[in-house]
Design brief:
The complex is a heterodimer of chains A (about 625) and B (about 210). Chain A has 16 helices and 14 strands. Chain A has about 625 residues and is an alpha+beta fold. In chain A, the strands form 4 sheets. Chain A has a 5-stranded antiparallel β-sheet. Chain B has 10 helices and 5 strands; from the N terminus they run E-H-E-H-E-H-E-H-E-H-H-H-H-H-H. The chains are: A alpha+beta (about 625), B alpha/beta (about 210).
Chain lengths: ~625, ~210
């Protein structure tokens, strides 16, 4: 005996103590994280290993056959306590083990453990054992039992074989799925030590190996390997936690400072997150908005529609982008363009939405202002055209007024002289009525031209609009000695355009043509307006017989403030282009092969013939 | 007061205005002949037997009122023009008046203004007619003089004495006296002063020389 202590006692006691320590550690972990069954399983395993160490030590010391049977029963219970939690530990930990195999193993071992306690001796021996004393090489004596094997033991041996298969299978599958470390450390060590224990014990049982059972040490190794992995996992988890915290901080920084609205909504449609930008724009504090239904932040008119939209989203049909008005606490409306993502729970069911939105209100307002400015420019353009037409229009108004005055005064004279015939007076009155109507038409045409704002483009009959321009410009043309001819194709359909705008374009082009022909001898000043249908548009040509356009000027003709005249502002063609392009058409100029220039523009045809054709009457 | 034989020619391209103005003039008792263009007017047989005037629109296609005035030239003497314009500016009216227009009115025109202008134009036409008739008489008389008598008359109205005329023409003073007596008789001048006045009226001798 070495320095008065028994090495066997010391070794097995230390093993038991180590197992107990590990058991305690796992137990603490399990208490901290009740939901993690894995720690419960490892606690049980460690306790099983500890019990096994005690019973093995006891078996080495025992001399009485009766006591040996009792301790052997406990030893088998210890093995059971270790193996079965281990099976379920692997099932939980890898997630790749076969459940039916685990259940089978558990059942078999449970039957075996029942047999263990019902047998006269234990699961290992049938009965009538003989205890032999052997001597270790350092001189210490220990007991070894021999006897007939219990037939039920094959069940336990079979189960142990199944465990080996079960673990190898689970490890291989885990390995294939990428968890190579876990597969190697846990699967590898367990397999090795199970095989070690599984080969060593039957040899001892069969008295082929004259040494004590060392199952406890195999068990200790297994529990250590598992503990090692669990500790490793805990370290990784804490590292992940800090990474997640850093990531969370990064995202939070973004969400809290980005000038975009962010809102989260739960499965019920209740707002559960808003970022500061959202709260700034909406005017609500966090407490005021969290918990509200998202529809409460929308204008009343769209609420029911939004409710249906959200139900559809919760069935998985969420539009990735949507534009809505947001009603602020103050009652104002902000136009927001949202991008949405669906949040799903672990089962893949919709659990809410997360949306990020940009406030378009200012942008839309700027666009509107721009539009307003352009309209104002167009109106100014019309006023300018009016200014240029002033003399001509005055003439148009003056003529009927002059005729009315003379007619009325003639009638008065006829009445005064008593020579008035009824027929003559009726003729005079008819003429007065007609001239007055004509003056009224000129006035209303003028009113249309200076009217502020834009008429909605409607179905427009081009020939009517063009001939009205011809009428308005008649005296202008007459004074300039220009002959105007209008050719309109028979199959010309309606176009979708504003009458006044298109008349302004035609007026501008005709006035331009008149000016272009100042130097042309009087008899040769001609303007031809031609309208043809070409595919899905109508093309209007204004051709003059002037000297044409300098090729170098063609590209800049439609630019603002470009004018070949000293007196012109150079806005006429720019405005014309603005109008045509707003209508979805295009405008250009070219020189005619036979002399003179052509200004042309297109307008899209109105595809559907509407029932009412009243707007151009 | 209104001469029923007087004719007003009216040219305006605008139907309604032409009809209304024609009615007004007719209601005042004038005979009116209306034309829709300057060309139609020029092409018409318009030799008036009685005093006439022309009421003319300025703005007309092809040939404007001012163009017509120029075309008529001196022929307008017997037919004063009253212009009627939609919007008259100063240069336009100056041009018209320099061209010999009787008046320049803007539309719409008050009946009294138009009728006054027309009456004045007709009065001028009448005066012109009298004047022209008188001139025609004097010219007729001048036609009856022999070339020698014209030479003598030219020197007489120039203020030369018989002796000086005889010296100038290289003949006897007696002969000049005879010529002079014939000139006075043929020209129906009772005195030297009257002969000078007749000569001035027809622009003699410059006109006769041309």
């Amino acid at each position: 005996m070495l320095i008065g202590v028994s090495p066997l006692t010391v070794a097995w006691s230390m093993c038991a103590a180590a197992c107990g320590m590990l058991a305690l550690m796992q137990l603490v972990l399990w208490f901290k994280q009740r939901r993690t069954a894995i720690y419960l399983f490892s606690t049980l395993m460690a306790l099983g290993a500890m019990l096994s160490a005690f019973t093995e030590l006891s078996l080495m010391r025992i001399l009485d056959a009766g006591a040996h049977a009792t301790v052997m029963k406990l030893q088998n219970l210890a093995v059971y306590l270790l193996l079965i939690p281990m099976v379920w530990f692997i099932h939980t930990y890898f997630g790749t083990a076969r459940r039916w195999l685990a259940v089978t193993i558990t059942a078999m071992w449970s039957v075996a453990i029942v047999a263990n306690f019902l047998s006269p001796h234990s699961l290992v021996f049938a009965d009538a054992i003989e205890i032999k004393r052997l001597t270790a090489f350092w001189g210490e004596e220990f007991s070894i039992a021999t006897g007939p094997a219990n037939p039920w033991k094959f069940l336990a041996d079979l189960a142990s074989l199944l465990i080996t298969i079960y673990i190898v299978d689970a490890s291989v599958r885990a390995w294939r799925q990428g968890s190579r470390r876990h597969a190697a450390v846990i699967g590898g060590s367990i397999t090795f030590f199970i095989l070690l224990g599984g080969i060593h014990s039957p040899l001892v049982d069969a008295s082929l190996l004259p040494m004590p059972y060392i199952i406890s040490f195999a068990f200790l190794a297994i529990v250590l390997a598992m503990t090692y992995e669990l500790v490793n996992d805990a370290i990784l988890a804490s590292r992940y936690a800090s990474e997640i915290a850093a990531s969370e901080k990064r995202w939070r920084l973004l969400l809290e400072n980005v000038p975009l609205l962010v809102a989260g909504v739960d499965r019920e449609g209740r707002i559960d997150y808003t970022n500061p930008c959202f709260r700034n724009v909406s005017g609500y504090a966090r407490d005021e908005v969290v918990g509200r239904h998202l529809t409460e932040l929308l204008p009343e008119s769209v609420r029911s529609e939004a409710r249906e939209g959200f139900s559809a989203a919760m069935r998985g049909d969420l539009p990735p982008q949507v534009e809505t008005a947001l009603k602020t606490k103050a009652g104002a409306l902000r136009q927001i363009a949202w991008s949405n993502v669906l949040i799903t729970d672990p089962e893949g069911e919709p659990a809410g939405t997360l949306s990020i939105g940009s406030d378009l209100t200012e942008q839309l307002k700027a666009q509107n202002d721009l539009q307003e400015t352009r309209r104002e420019m167009e109106r100014m353009g019309r006023a300018m055209v009016l200014g240029e037409l002033g003399a001509s229009l005055a003439h148009e108004l003056n003529q009927p007024l002059a005729a009315i005055l003379s007619n009325a005064q003639a009638a008065r004279r006829l009445l005064a002289s008593g020579t008035a015939g009824g027929d003559e007076l009726r003729d005079i009155l008819d003429d007065i009525v007609r001239d007055d109507t004509r003056a009224g038409d000129v006035i209303s045409g003028l009113r249309d031209m200076v009217r502020k704002g834009r008429a909605e483009p409607g179905p427009l009959r081009l020939e009517a609009a063009i001939s009205e321009v011809g009428r308005l410009l008649r005296s202008e043309l007459g004074a300039a000695g220009v002959a105007l001819e209008v050719e309109v194709a028979r199959d010309l359909t309606l176009v979708s355009a504003g009458r006044v705008e298109i008349q302004q374009v035609v007026t501008n082009l005709v006035l331009n043509a008149i000016r272009a022909m100042r130097d042309v001898p009087a008899g040769r000043r001609k303007i031809l307006i031609r309208a043809d249908r070409i595919d899905h548009s109508v093309q209007v040509l204004v051709m003059d017989s002037g000297s044409g356009i300098d090729e170098a000027m063609l590209p800049s003709l439609f630019d603002a403030f470009f004018s070949t005249r000293k007196s012109g502002l150079g806005m006429g063609l720019t405005i014309a282009r603005g109008i045509v392009e707003t209508h979805g058409g295009r405008i250009w100029a070219q020189n005619n092969p036979g002399g003179g220039a052509t200004f042309a523009f297109t307008l899209p045809v109105l595809e559907e013939e509407p029932v009412l054709l009243g707007t151009d009457a | 007061m209104i001469d029923p034989d007087a004719t007003i020619f009216l040219v305006d391209d605008e139907d309604s205005v032409r009809r209304a103005v024609a009615r007004l003039l007719k209601s005042a008792g004038y005979r009116v002949r209306a034309f829709a263009s300057a060309r139609a007017f020029l092409d018409s047989d318009r030799e008036p037997s009685a005093p006439a005037c022309l009421v003319l629109d300025v703005q007309m296609p092809e040939m404007t009122g001012l163009d017509l005035q120029r075309e008529l030239g001196s022929a307008q003497a017997g037919m004063p023009i009253v212009f009627l314009t939609g919007h008259g500016d100063v240069p336009m009216s100056v041009r018209a008046m320099k061209g010999g227009a009787a008046d320049f009115l803007t539309k719409p025109v008050q009946d009294v203004d138009l009728l006054r202008a027309v009456a004045q134009a007709l009065a001028r036409a009448r005066e012109d007619r009298v004047e022209q008739a008188a001139l025609a008489t004097v010219l007729e008389r001048l036609e009856r003089l022999t070339p020698r008598e014209r030479e003598v008359m030219a020197l007489v109205v120039a203020g030369l004495r018989n002796k000086q005329i005889a010296y100038e023409l290289g003949t006897a003073e007696k002969t000049i006296k005879v010529h002079r007596g014939r000139v006075m008789a043929k020209m129906q001048a009772r005195s030297l002063a009257e002969l000078v006045r007749l000569a001035e009226r027809i622009g003699f001798p410059e006109e006769a020389a041309t």
